[in-house]
Amino acid sequence: MITGFVALYIFMLAAFTGYEIIGRVPTILHTPLMSGSNFVHGIVLVGAMVALGNADGFWETLIGFLGVALAAANVTGGYVVTERMLGMFKTSKD
Question: For the whole prediction, is pTM greater than 0.90?
Answer without folding.
Answer: no
